[in-house]
């Protein structure tokens, strides 16, 4: 296969996607790498139908890479993820509207062009989490305890464009990150950047059926295949606070190989989501009743490219249409 990766300078030496590109090349595939932030591109020649089996994007929000990916999609090329789906989560204001309209548990979201405009909110909405609508990698995320502290943000956020603000969800200071790759879900936890005083740690944790259902539904709502979901365990249950296309997949076992195989599968199928017609119920070992759907396995056995993958405790992606029914109850094993 011939693939094109769009990689901006921030990720030039990052394991995701550098190691994935190396793995694909080692398997005999041709991978062209474009750096849209630093190269002069002849668009009419670069984006050409038939040149590549798929295009893959790893760029910062607001970078030029997404425009190129959309150009590739416009002439009929396969993109990983779907270019329109990426736009739907890169704009956090848009993502919040889409998510809440489809019933995802996401906070009420306010938008403002300037930090001081948020002072119009009633005091009952504070503390607020304020961040750029096109932010990524935790850039300029701030916890604002009260309206009189908004003035302190004027300088650092004045050039960030549209801002979004959400009422702070009380939690333990631990973020739960759920990754979807190859139709399977993995969960890790780490200390929240909003609570730098907490001891730093990051580890894989079991995934409850409720959170697994939410994470699977995110893929269906936004049309994503490779993605990550940031979840907080609030007093009223889990809340989704962010969705990322092509995240780092930190601590996912054999992440490089799994992502590389997922890219190849999506390129072969034209970006179609995994088949989930046949389901068989199982327990994942944490006490959570999990629906194992479609042809996905637990990561063992030969892959489509002839390689062998290691064993890992994973939760296959549930069928989106059945998520709300299958994952109502929270089971033990959340790792808290």
Question: Can you tell me about this structure?
Answer:
24% of the residues lie in helices and 24% in strands. The strands form four sheets. Strands 9, 10, 11, 12, 13 and 16 form a six-stranded antiparallel sheet that branches. Strands 2-1-3-4 form a four-stranded parallel sheet, sandwiched between helices. A four-stranded antiparallel sheet has the order 5-8-6-7, with no helix packed on it. Mean pLDDT is 79; it is low at 274-336. With 336 residues, it is α+β, with helices and mostly antiparallel strands. A hairpin with a 5-residue loop joins β14 and β15.
Features:
336 residues; alpha+beta; 6-stranded antiparallel beta sheet; 4-stranded parallel beta sheet; 9 helices; 16 strands; 24% helix; globular; disordered C terminus
**Residue share in helix:** 10-25%
Q: Major β-sheet, in short?
A: 6 strands, antiparallel
Low-confidence stretches: 274-336
**What is the rounded distance between the termini?**
43 Å
Class of secondary structure makeup? alpha+beta
Number of helices: 9
| Mean pLDDT score | 79
Order of helices and strands: EHEHEHEHHEEEHEEEEHEEHEEEH
Number of strands: 16
* Estimated radius of gyration: 20 Å
Task: Give the overall shape, derived from the CA principal axes.
Answer: globular
Strand content: 15-25%
